Amino acid sequence: MFLGIELGDSGDQDPNVALTAAVSQAPAGATVRLAAAASDDFGVDSVSFFREEAQGAVLLATDGAAPYEIDTVIPASAAGTVWRYFARAVDGAGQSSNSAPIAITVR
């Protein structure tokens, strides 16, 4: 009989997450829907949405239930400016994964 604590790989996988946007171009001030598809072998607790800026990633919102999506406003900026967004999924064990970034160009 084993009565100890086993350390090491529990077999739990990091969550998977992919981000999509309703459009790839939009005028500044437009509202754009971001949607994430997330999955995990033990369940997804939440998905957070971020915009990449010069100072780093800015948290836009967190959604705790599927479907994981938010509406966000494209910041005031010149035509041709490219804004990048990504999603982060977190599972019940606290493991997280980021999606590949997507780009929305201001037109």
Layout of secondary structure:
Elements: E1 16-21, E2 25-26, E3 31-39, E4 44-53, E5 56-63, E6 68-73, E7 82-91, E8 96-98, E9 102-106
Parallel strand pairs: 2-9
Antiparallel strand pairs: 1-3, 3-6, 4-5, 4-7, 7-8, 7-9
Give short descriptive properties of this protein.
9 strands; 0% helix; single chain; mainly beta; 107 residues; six-stranded mixed beta sheet; Immunoglobulin-like
Structural summary, described in words:
Mean pLDDT is 92; it is low at 4-8. Helices cover 0% and strands 55% of the residues. The strands form two sheets. Strands 2, 4, 5, 7, 8 and 9 form a six-stranded mixed beta sheet that branches. It has a three-stranded antiparallel beta sheet with strand order 1-3-6, with no helix packed on it. It has 107 residues and is mainly β. A hairpin with a 4-residue loop joins β7 and β8 (96-98). It has a single domain (16-106), classed as Immunoglobulin-like. It is elongated and about 50 Å long.
Quote the CATH topology. Immunoglobulin-like
Number of helices: 0
The general outline is elongated
Question: Could you describe the largest sheet, including whether it forms a barrel?
Answer: 6 strands, mixed
Q: State the end-to-end distance.
A: 67 Å
As a whole number of angstroms, the C-alpha radius of gyration is: 17 Å
Question: Strand fraction band?
Answer: over 45%
Oligomer: single chain
Average pLDDT across residues? Answer: 92
- Quick one: CATH class? Mainly Beta
Alpha-beta content class: mainly beta
| Number of beta strands | 9
Low-confidence stretches: 4-8
**Could you give me the name of the CATH homologous superfamily?**
Immunoglobulins
Q: Which architecture name does CATH use?
A: Sandwich
Secondary-structure element sequence?
Answer: EEEEEEEEE
- Helical content band: under 10%
Integer tally of domains: 1
